[in-house]
From TrEMBL:
<feature type="compositionally biased region" description="Low complexity">
    <location>
        <begin position="28"/>
        <end position="45"/>
    </location>
</feature>
<dbReference type="Pfam" id="PF00497">
    <property type="entry name" value="SBP_bac_3"/>
</dbReference>
<feature type="region of interest" description="Disordered">
    <location>
        <begin position="28"/>
        <end position="47"/>
    </location>
</feature>
<dbReference type="InterPro" id="IPR018313">
    <property type="entry name" value="SBP_3_CS"/>
</dbReference>
<protein>
    <submittedName>
        <fullName>Amino acid ABC transporter</fullName>
    </submittedName>
</protein>
<keyword id="KW-0732">Signal</keyword>
<dbReference type="GO" id="GO:0030313">
    <property type="term" value="C:cell envelope"/>
</dbReference>
<comment type="similarity">
    <text>Belongs to the bacterial solute-binding protein 3 family.</text>
</comment>
<feature type="signal peptide">
    <location>
        <begin position="1"/>
        <end position="20"/>
    </location>
</feature>
<feature type="domain" description="Solute-binding protein family 3/N-terminal">
    <location>
        <begin position="59"/>
        <end position="280"/>
    </location>
</feature>
<dbReference type="InterPro" id="IPR001638">
    <property type="entry name" value="Solute-binding_3/MltF_N"/>
</dbReference>
């Protein structure tokens, strides 16, 4: 091979190599290694459910508003202030079934849902009605107790106030953030609403003639009225379709709801809640 032929041969080889590199097919999706995003999509979530968190912590935190006898209220027992009531007894049964201890946090009723959302408490037992509006933000257990809504008035005014119309232009009280406040707004639009956070304060408003009537659940009214003979239940009829009470938990806690419903089924099946209500009423000592 002459020198010129050798040079030509080397140039041809170089050209073939360059051409081969330029025609290499692009890698397909199947050829590409999995990206971090794809790996994350196939990795199962490791975050514990609310029920698992509670069991690992060994305790469950109850949020309630302990001024609502016979549901929950303060009472001195053996010279020590205790929170008791049939809601509290239900909470104790739930904790027992879960195998954890119960911690109780007492707060204003209107602050309960915010405390649940922030994780400050694990569940709410406070005679709370599972309205459609509340269901948008929290999950509820099945209804464990249903009470009739009534109107309390001063005994001297029982014949004066016999219908909703009789309360037009009058001040009517209800617990702030509770079903009773909604009832007054919707069913007594011509009355003047006065909403306060504590039932005991509302009862004093009625006794001291600061309001003319008070919308309240019947067992709660009976607990107070049994100790306050100057107050009675009026014959005023209210529509109370949404008066049942349920347990509230944070949205997305379906396993916790299921566990709580099992406890409620056991208690309701044995009629234990009716017994708890009766026993709580016996312990009420209001002024």
């Amino acid at each position: 091979m002459t020198k010129n032929k050798a040079i030509i041969f080397m140039l041809l080889c170089f050209t073939l190599i360059v051409s081969a590199c330029g025609t290499k097919p692009a890698a397909t999706t199947a050829d590409k290694p999995a990206t971090g995003g794809d790996a994350a999509a196939t990795t199962p979530a490791s975050k514990d459910s609310k029920l698992e968190q509670i069991k690992k912590a060994g305790k469950i935190v109850l949020g309630t508003s302990a001024d609502y006898p016979p549901y929950e209220f303060h009472k001195e027992i053996n010279k020590k202030d205790e929170i008791i009531g049939f809601d509290i007894e239900i909470a104790k049964e739930i904790a027992k079934d879960l195998g954890v201890t119960l911690e109780i946090k007492d707060m204003k009723y209107e602050g309960l849902l915010a405390a649940l959302d922030s994780g400050n408490i694990d569940f709410i037992l406070a005679g709370m009605t599972p309205t459609e509006e509340r269901k948008k933000n929290v999950d509820f257990s099945k209804i464990y107790y249903t009470a009739i809504q009534r109107v309390a008035v001063r005994a001297e005014d029982k014949d004066k106030y016999k219908s909703i119309d009789d309360l037009k232009g009058k001040k009517v009280a209800g617990q702030k953030g509770a079903t009773q406040e909604k009832i007054i707004k919707e069913q007594m639009p011509d009355s003047e609403l006065k909403a306060l956070g504590k039932i005991s304060d509302l009862m004093l408003e009625l006794k001291n003639k600061k309001v003319e009537a008070l919308v309240v659940e019947q067992p709660v009214a009976e607990a107070y009225l049994s100790k306050n003979k100057d107050l009675v239940l009026a014959d005023i009829k209210l529509s109370t379709e949404d008066s049942g009470s349920a347990i509230a938990v944070k949205k997305g806690s379906s396993d916790l709801v299921e566990a709580m419903n099992k406890t409620l089924d056991r208690l309701m099946g044995a009629k234990s809640i009716d017994k708890m209500v009766a026993e709580a009423n016996e312990q009420v000592d209001t002024q």
